[in-house]
Design brief:
Layout lengths: L6 H44 L12 H6 L5 E5 L2 E5 L4 E7 L6 E7 L3 E7 L2 E8 L3 E7 L2 E7 L12 E2 L2
Antiparallel strand pairs: 1-2, 2-5, 3-4, 3-9, 4-7, 5-6, 7-8
Length: 164
Amino acid sequence: MAMQFNPNILRTTKRVAVWTLVGAVWLGTAGAAALNVRKQEAADAQEAARWSVAGEPCPTITEQAYDAAPLSVSETRFYGMKFERRVGHVMCTRVVAAGHKDKQPVCQFTGPVFLRAEAAGQAGYYAPGQGKAARVAMVDGKLRCAVVPKFKMFEETSRLKYGA
Protein backbone atom coordinates (compact mmCIF):
# COMPACT_ATOMS: atom_id res chain seq x y z
CA MET A 1 0.00 0.00 0.00
CA ALA A 2 1.43 3.36 -0.99
CA MET A 3 1.73 6.18 1.50
CA GLN A 4 -0.45 9.13 0.80
CA PHE A 5 0.78 12.67 1.15
CA ASN A 6 -1.00 14.69 3.84
CA PRO A 7 -0.82 18.47 3.10
CA ASN A 8 -1.70 19.33 6.75
CA ILE A 9 1.72 18.03 7.80
CA LEU A 10 3.39 20.94 5.97
CA ARG A 11 1.13 23.45 7.70
CA THR A 12 1.88 21.94 11.10
CA THR A 13 5.62 21.84 10.40
CA LYS A 14 5.62 25.47 9.23
CA ARG A 15 3.62 26.52 12.28
CA VAL A 16 6.07 24.80 14.63
CA ALA A 17 9.03 26.34 12.81
CA VAL A 18 7.51 29.83 12.95
CA TRP A 19 6.67 29.58 16.66
CA THR A 20 10.12 28.16 17.40
CA LEU A 21 11.68 31.12 15.60
CA VAL A 22 9.39 33.59 17.40
CA GLY A 23 10.31 32.03 20.75
CA ALA A 24 14.04 32.14 19.97
CA VAL A 25 13.83 35.81 18.94
CA TRP A 26 11.85 36.66 22.08
CA LEU A 27 14.35 34.88 24.35
CA GLY A 28 17.27 36.55 22.60
CA THR A 29 15.67 39.98 22.95
CA ALA A 30 14.85 39.41 26.63
CA GLY A 31 18.39 38.20 27.30
CA ALA A 32 19.93 41.19 25.53
CA ALA A 33 17.66 43.57 27.45
CA ALA A 34 18.60 41.98 30.79
CA LEU A 35 22.30 42.23 29.91
CA ASN A 36 21.87 45.88 28.94
CA VAL A 37 20.11 46.65 32.25
CA ARG A 38 22.96 45.06 34.20
CA LYS A 39 25.57 46.99 32.21
CA GLN A 40 23.66 50.24 32.84
CA GLU A 41 23.39 49.51 36.57
CA ALA A 42 27.15 48.91 36.72
CA ALA A 43 27.83 52.12 34.78
CA ASP A 44 25.47 54.07 37.09
CA ALA A 45 27.22 52.68 40.18
CA GLN A 46 30.64 53.58 38.78
CA GLU A 47 29.51 57.11 37.94
CA ALA A 48 27.90 57.56 41.37
CA ALA A 49 31.17 56.50 43.02
CA ARG A 50 33.07 59.06 40.91
CA TRP A 51 30.65 61.78 42.05
CA SER A 52 30.34 60.69 45.69
CA VAL A 53 30.14 63.25 48.50
CA ALA A 54 31.70 60.82 50.95
CA GLY A 55 34.79 62.15 52.64
CA GLU A 56 35.86 65.10 54.72
CA PRO A 57 32.94 67.53 55.18
CA CYS A 58 33.50 71.08 53.98
CA PRO A 59 34.13 73.55 56.80
CA THR A 60 30.95 75.57 57.40
CA ILE A 61 30.63 79.32 57.86
CA THR A 62 27.77 81.60 58.83
CA GLU A 63 25.56 83.40 56.34
CA GLN A 64 26.99 86.69 57.62
CA ALA A 65 30.58 85.55 56.99
CA TYR A 66 29.61 84.40 53.49
CA ASP A 67 27.88 87.70 52.70
CA ALA A 68 30.87 89.68 54.01
CA ALA A 69 33.35 87.92 51.69
CA PRO A 70 34.90 90.45 49.29
CA LEU A 71 34.89 88.23 46.20
CA SER A 72 32.24 88.44 43.47
CA VAL A 73 29.54 85.77 43.28
CA SER A 74 28.96 83.35 40.39
CA GLU A 75 25.58 81.59 40.45
CA THR A 76 24.55 78.24 38.97
CA ARG A 77 21.14 76.56 39.04
CA PHE A 78 20.88 72.85 38.37
CA TYR A 79 17.81 70.61 38.76
CA GLY A 80 16.24 72.49 41.66
CA MET A 81 19.53 73.32 43.36
CA LYS A 82 21.12 76.76 43.47
CA PHE A 83 24.83 77.33 44.01
CA GLU A 84 26.89 80.45 44.55
CA ARG A 85 30.65 80.33 44.54
CA ARG A 86 33.35 82.89 45.08
CA VAL A 87 36.08 81.72 42.69
CA GLY A 88 36.50 78.64 40.54
CA HIS A 89 34.37 76.69 38.13
CA VAL A 90 31.48 74.26 38.51
CA MET A 91 30.59 71.02 36.75
CA CYS A 92 27.29 69.22 37.47
CA THR A 93 25.59 65.96 36.61
CA ARG A 94 22.87 63.68 37.90
CA VAL A 95 23.71 60.25 39.27
CA VAL A 96 21.81 57.32 40.73
CA ALA A 97 22.97 57.36 44.34
CA ALA A 98 23.15 54.18 46.40
CA GLY A 99 19.74 53.20 47.70
CA HIS A 100 17.88 55.45 45.22
CA LYS A 101 16.24 54.75 41.88
CA ASP A 102 16.02 58.32 40.62
CA LYS A 103 18.97 60.39 39.50
CA GLN A 104 20.10 62.97 42.04
CA PRO A 105 21.86 66.24 41.12
CA VAL A 106 25.45 66.72 42.27
CA CYS A 107 27.91 69.51 41.46
CA GLN A 108 31.63 69.81 41.95
CA PHE A 109 33.70 72.96 42.20
CA THR A 110 37.37 73.50 41.27
CA GLY A 111 38.21 75.80 44.18
CA PRO A 112 35.24 77.80 45.39
CA VAL A 113 36.91 79.43 48.48
CA PHE A 114 33.36 80.22 49.69
CA LEU A 115 30.30 78.30 48.58
CA ARG A 116 26.55 78.61 49.16
CA ALA A 117 24.21 75.73 48.30
CA GLU A 118 20.43 75.87 48.40
CA ALA A 119 17.92 73.08 47.82
CA ALA A 120 14.59 71.90 49.22
CA GLY A 121 14.29 74.97 51.45
CA GLN A 122 17.73 74.44 53.00
CA ALA A 123 20.84 76.59 52.64
CA GLY A 124 24.40 75.70 53.49
CA TYR A 125 27.43 77.98 53.68
CA TYR A 126 30.86 76.44 53.26
CA ALA A 127 34.50 77.47 53.10
CA PRO A 128 36.42 74.56 51.53
CA GLY A 129 39.51 76.76 51.26
CA GLN A 130 41.55 78.18 48.43
CA GLY A 131 42.78 75.56 45.98
CA LYS A 132 40.54 72.82 47.40
CA ALA A 133 37.89 71.14 45.30
CA ALA A 134 34.42 70.50 46.72
CA ARG A 135 31.35 68.50 45.78
CA VAL A 136 27.76 69.20 46.92
CA ALA A 137 24.64 67.02 46.71
CA MET A 138 21.40 66.31 48.52
CA VAL A 139 21.86 63.08 50.49
CA ASP A 140 18.78 61.64 52.16
CA GLY A 141 17.08 65.03 52.10
CA LYS A 142 20.04 66.99 53.52
CA LEU A 143 22.66 69.15 51.84
CA ARG A 144 26.11 67.60 51.98
CA CYS A 145 29.39 69.24 50.98
CA ALA A 146 32.66 67.33 50.90
CA VAL A 147 36.23 68.34 50.16
CA VAL A 148 37.30 66.10 47.27
CA PRO A 149 40.50 65.48 45.31
CA LYS A 150 41.32 68.10 42.70
CA PHE A 151 39.97 67.43 39.23
CA LYS A 152 40.30 68.93 35.78
CA MET A 153 37.26 70.43 34.10
CA PHE A 154 35.83 68.38 31.24
CA GLU A 155 38.07 65.44 32.14
CA GLU A 156 35.08 63.16 32.74
CA THR A 157 33.85 61.23 29.73
CA SER A 158 30.47 60.20 31.16
CA ARG A 159 27.09 61.94 30.79
CA LEU A 160 27.92 65.40 32.15
CA LYS A 161 26.11 68.67 32.37
CA TYR A 162 28.14 71.84 32.70
CA GLY A 163 27.23 74.92 34.66
CA ALA A 164 28.37 78.43 33.91
